[in-house]
Structures
1.
Amino acid sequence: RCALRCARRRPPAMSRYGAQHFHKPENALKRAEELIAVGQPSAGLQTLHDVISSKRHRVWSKTMERIMFKFVEIAVELKKGRIAKDGLFQFRIISQHVNVASLEEVIRYFLKLATDRAEAAQAKAAEMLSNVDDLEEDITPEQIILSYVSADSDKDRIDREEVTPWFRFLWETYRTVLEVLKNNSKLESLYAMTAQRAFAFCRQYSRITEMRRLCDMLRNHLSNLNKWRDQRDRPELSLPETFSLYMETRFEQLRTAVDLEMWQEAFRTIEDIHGLVVQVRREPKPQHLATYYSMLTKIFYKSGNEMYAAFAWNKLFTVSKNYNKNLTPGDLEALASAVVLSTVAVPPYS
């Protein structure tokens, strides 16, 4: 009896982070909500992370899904990208073979929250500036000191304090989601959608460095896909749907690189597309071929290869004439003129 009483008085088991182990996941969710209510969101986030990472709860349930929704809410609110990434990896282990739709819903919600917060921060910064009629009126001593020690304007300072952290977190969110979804046939459509949204982000905000890192990441994912052929749920590039998704992603990458005038990256993407076609031995769709040769004309013109540019114009003319039924006589005449002019522009003996 004494031993039984002592066992009953023992405190709950503690994790390595100092959080309690919960016998039921719903208890952890309730505890996290209590911590948030008293102004301790970090502790609530850690509580949910512990239950998601616990081996005793490696079974998917609707409760675990609700925990993940709350988990990503707190992680976005606190801008905790690393712990969010680890939690998503843990939830992928739990759900990818049981209920992959649940993982998709959580990731879509995570992307939506991060995008909404970044856009809200940008709108707030614009409103803060628009509400000031005279930027020199009622200048505080702190602002006077800042004006002497810094060359930044009020807009630059507001962007750095309010907008930049959220856009940095949004970019980190894109990278996290791509890492979680990579090389999984059940998640390939969401992977392609996320990659295209990341390209749109780079194009909209002219992010050259981030675009280069994104291209390297996708290139590395494809390399690992070809390397580990015995991986479970590995996408099969020979399937028409999978091949189409990968090609659309690469063509969006090509368009973004050309729009940002990243000519070296655009040429590397051309090589990636050619490598995919050779590997799968499948002809791309006519609209993809038209995009391919259209971008080649710009790349070869920019690099000073007039002869290759003329050849690309000729291929674009042929593809458009044979497959584009909506091509007007005026468009066809313009393409033909481009072929003739690019051919005439080729230096002799080149």
2.
Amino acid sequence: DFKHPGGDSVLLFGGNDVTVQYKMIHPYHTTKHLEKMRAVGKINDGDVQRDYVFDTPFEREIKREVFKIVRRGREFGTWGYFARAFTYIGIMAALQYLWVTVGPSWTLALFLGMSQASIGLNVQHDANHGAASKKPWVNDLLGFGADFIGGSKWLWMEQHWTHHAYTNHASKDPDSFSAEPMMAFNDYPLDHPNRKLWHRAQGFLFLPLLSFYWLSSVFNVQILDLEQRGAQSVGIRMDNDFVKSRRKYAVTLRILYIYWNIVCPFLKTGWSWTTLAQILVLGAAESLTLASLFALSHNFEGSDRDPTKDVREGGEPVCWFKSQVETSSTYGGFISGALTGGLNFQVEHHLFPRMSSAWYPYIAPTVREICKKHGVKYAYYPWVLQNFISTVKYMHNAGTGANWKEFAQPLKGDL
């Protein structure tokens, strides 16, 4: 008898303990909000290890000051956000029409791939965070942008919301080992079994490997059952009725995407290696635009690769808000935000994931000041190239084990 104000997406995680996800999506909820819902059971706190603690002095101050800038209930997409989003949608629709009706070309492949990536960055990302609009149907509609670029909104939410809740967590962040065994984002100890010989060259292979992101997404068999294996491997259950009911829609949209982007070019030109190469250029352009920007966010020199180390060693939960800052980086400013859907403001985004990216340039200065006041490490790069260089260096050192070889005693976290 309870209708969730944020829509049906909450059902995606039915059957799971989503305490952390709840708190990150509802930053100003109190126990009064929970009283509106019917309790169906209670977890014995003694049976659950809590890695994070909330309502710390740092969290209270950062929320208090940020909500002076963005009033509660007004944190959703602005007119500027929707103008930007529909501009990117219009560009991609026009290029997609040409790809289907006229046929492929090298130039069109490049720009269509980049355009599809812009939908992933600027449209579906805010929407699938529930941040584009206060109206759930708007978020649901724009969220299908993920499916029109070769992904799936439901698979994306299963992995991405889990990643947000446990960023860089040694055992619970599916993003931290999503590229294994091809690449290792985690800086494993030298004798760790997840280290592979070819990881020593991953600083050089970083971009070439990322170019296959599109292929791995479009032909991902997980679309058949909508159970994202990364989230599943860290304990998230996805066998509920809501997920099962969405499978037919996900498969239908994937077939449509493959028809438009892979089958139609061959129908226009007939079989040729040139056409196949142009399709792969489309995929590589999308892959590099999306994946290279995603990779910058939490893999850089000085990022905290083990934010819950204190929990394991001392049993004391760590401040969730502090861990989000120290595992993320921000680069550039307003222009970068307009091009990347605000993903350049990763620190701000991880602190307030249900706030529209349109607001991040306005709250960033305040966030930095409060971090400095509380001694929380805030990573900022004025230019994206600086962040990229730092990421490549980190990937090289993580692959070769250089960070472990440099010290007499192996470094365990707090990189």
